[in-house]
């Protein structure tokens, strides 16, 4: 038993289905937030609001903490700041990459739950 069909029409329909499937998928972007270890409270709150907005949109967040000059001697302050961000966003995010030092920058990646 066989089925005779218009191959051009068949190709068109499969292409249309593929386009529909592509429309429905969400591309996950990595948004970057840059901070300094001596960030002020208000500036920190503004950054946190942006981080929460990125998670609501379904994007990952890369936190970059840049050290300048003598700040390199106080890396524990930077680690403490990244831990604070992790604790505040614990219920809406998970840590994808633990904080690590790369040159003069400390980097951590968070992903939405």
In short:
Helix content is 42%, strand content 27%. By secondary structure, the protein is an alpha+beta fold. The protein has a four-stranded mixed beta sheet, covered by helices on one side.
Describe the SSE topology:
Layout: H1 7-24, E1 30-35, H2 41-56, E2 60-66, H3 75-88, E3 93-102, E4 105-112
Parallel strand pairs: 1-2
Antiparallel strand pairs: 2-4, 3-4
Measure the end-to-end span. Answer: 50 Å
Shape descriptor reads elongated
Gyration radius, in Å: 22 Å
Counting copies of identical and different chains, the oligomeric state is: single chain
- The overall pLDDT, averaged over residues, is 91
Strand ordering within the main sheet: 1-2-4-3
Uncertain residue ranges: none
Which structural class is indicated by helix and strand composition? alpha+beta
Number of helices: 3
Number of DSSP E strands: 4
Q: Helix proportion of residues, in percent? A: 40-55%
- Beta-strand percent range: 25-35%
Order of helices and strands: HEHEHEE
Largest sheet: 4 strands, mixed
Structure notes:
The chain is of the alpha+beta class and 113 residues long. The protein is built from three helices and four strands; from the N terminus they run αβαβαββ. A four-stranded mixed β-sheet has the order 1-2-4-3, covered by helices on one side. The longest helix has 18 residues, at 7-24. It is elongated.
């Amino acid at each position: 038993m066989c089925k005779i069909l218009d191959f051009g029409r068949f190709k068109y329909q499969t292409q249309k289905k593929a386009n529909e499937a592509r429309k429905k998928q969400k591309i996950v972007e990595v948004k970057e937030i840059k901070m300094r270890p001596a960030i002020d409270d208000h500036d920190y709150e503004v950054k946190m609001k942006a981080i929460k907005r990125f998670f609501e949109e379904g994007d990952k967040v890369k936190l970059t903490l840049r050290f300048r000059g003598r700040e390199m001697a106080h890396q524990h302050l930077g680690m403490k700041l990244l831990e604070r961000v992790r604790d505040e966003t614990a219920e809406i995010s998970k840590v994808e990459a633990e904080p690590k030092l790369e040159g003069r920058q400390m980097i951590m990646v968070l992903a939405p739950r």
